[in-house]
Amino acid sequence: MSRKSLTIAAAIVVAALAGLWAGRHLPGASAPAEAASAPHAEAENPKRAESGVSISPVERERAGIATAAVRSLELQAQSQGIATALPLQELIDAAATLASARAQADRATSALAASRRDFERLRGLHAQDRNVSDRALEVAEAAWRADEAGARSAQAALDAARAGARGRWGVVLADAMAVDGPLWRRLAAGQSVLLRVAASGAVSGAMPAAIEIEAPDGKWKPARQVSIAPIADPRIQGTAFFYDTDAKGIAPGMTLAARFGAGEKQAGALLPADALLWWQGRQWAYVEEEPGRFERREAVAARRVDNGWFVPGFEQATVVSRGAQALLSQELRSTVKVGEEEK
């Protein structure tokens, strides 16, 4: 090879090496490639708020997310209680004891009335020229006195049975059993069940005349107060009350939740039935702060009502009425991805 050719080849190699060095070390030389990859990374990870998530319209439609405006509402504060369905056999035994004692008292009263009439008749005849012997008069008087003692004894037994029933079941229920009243007939026929209800929190004064009981199927049914219960619930130190409710679906011995209004009204919002979800032991709702951006808000002290959830202190907003669980899953996935990228 000639000297001139060698010179040209060396110049080409030097130029190539200089270009490679400049591409690696000059400022901003790699910016276009990095900028091109940034949008791709952002597209893979939806924007995340501290307790929420942003999703695209396509993702929203795919997850079946629907929203609804909550309605401001005021409801009376509620207290909770524990209701126990009582066995009917004890009531039947008490009613049978009362009926037997009353029948015995009625028989003794009738016998007393008959023997007294007989004595009065013989005493009148004895006074008319002794048409009745002294012996016959004495026998009649003795029978009358014996029946009188028997009547007192029978009445005492009836009073004791009535006092026992009142001491165990209260005046209202004991009297209903004694006279076969409507309340007792419903219970005896199995149409109603007797509940002993005690408030699980501090309740001032008597419990209301009407409360609600959560049946085993999850539905709430009304219960009517009968009277104060003479014997408290051993699980809760406090005054208990008897209530009766429809017996359908409730078996003796069941323990059920009770709720009733107590205290001042609370301001809050009515949320759709499917708006709340459980996470980390608390209830949450997703609020749409702006189109496509959802913030998770805690629903403190939420309680079930007939057509949704009442949440005290919840501000008026647009909440996710369907698909909240999908949003939570998306939020948690985003959290995991961000944590991995920061390592």
UniProtKB/TrEMBL annotation:
Which residues does the annotated region (Disordered) include?
A: 30-56
Name assigned to this protein: Metal transporter
Q: Where is the composition biased (Basic and acidic residues)?
A: 41-50
- Which regions are flagged for Low complexity bias? 30-40
